[in-house]
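Lab notebook, bench 4. Still working through the backlog of constructs that have no structural model yet. Next entry is a single chain of 347 residues. Request: give me the structure tokens for it.
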Amino acid sequence: MTLTELQHLLAQFKTLNILVMGDFFLDRYLILDPDLAETSIETGLDAHQVVEIRNQPGAAGTVTSNLNALGVGNIFALGVIGDDGQGYDLKKGLRATNVNTDHLIETSDRFTPTYTKPINQKTNQEHERQDIKNRAPLSTKLEDQLIQALHQLTPHMHGIIALDQLQERNCGVLTDRVTSELARLAEQHTDKIFFADSRTRIGDFKNAILKPNRTEALEAIAPNHTGEIDQIFLEQCARTFSQRTGKPAFITLDADGILATDGEDLTHIPGIKVPPPIDIVGAGDSVSASVVSALCAGASHANAAQLGVIVSSITIQQIGTTGTASPEQIIDRFQKIKTFGTTDGHG
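Model written out:
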């Protein structure tokens, strides 16, 4: 990909409509000043003192934040959150990042999933996280609402990103029933980009582009594999995903970059070395946002993967937050990598 091609690709993003469906979390950062710590009179335990609170959309909300930073024209959120204070803060954060929340379902029967992250102000070290998640299955009524909204929105979208964050089956937005409906819609709307990312169930998605990391790929393709997990093995995993879905597949390899196949050609885009410190939280979500935006704008699977590698190299340098990358940062990073045009291509 040349600089001119990259600039043209990024310019197309403002024309796109992209739906993100899945588990929207609130990321709540509590900034602690250790010098102000007190001892509780009642318990004798340390009472950590919060001097700043930062709220931002997490999980599926990290994807929408990255889409916004990339300059995507219209971003839509579809999910289920609680009718609670965390939900208020989450919707506020989504709207601040230009996300349409009209189809974000609020209910008193569910929590707003929340990651509470205490951070030491002096060291930037994260303390033990506190998680709020729903551990009861999603109701049929809420599934009906999600499916109805999905049918309503899909014809107007260029791309649909499905993000499955929860490990507990059927307790998040992408239940078995909703996932099956996504597959049916993907089969009907072949002109749309359907893209799935799941922590534990990537193999359940049909007719969609899949983006596991190497661990998720191994669990889905060969959970009992005991041999070496080398480049050749991962290439076969990518081909297997593509054969199963009839769509391209992307496997993220952390610092080693991305493996991408369109079902015929397979390309390895090497990772970009960046100096420490780094924070990999949200890097995969930034890849999802950039790859889907690129594919919706007409990029090849190889160029979409190249953009994903560039974007993730930028986001991991943002410490103590889930980072994003702007078109200006992407172009600057591209220009600084003199040998980036060299990739490992396999037919």
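Notes after review: The chain has one domain: 3-38+47-346. The chain is about 35% helix and 25% strand. Flag for follow-up if needed.
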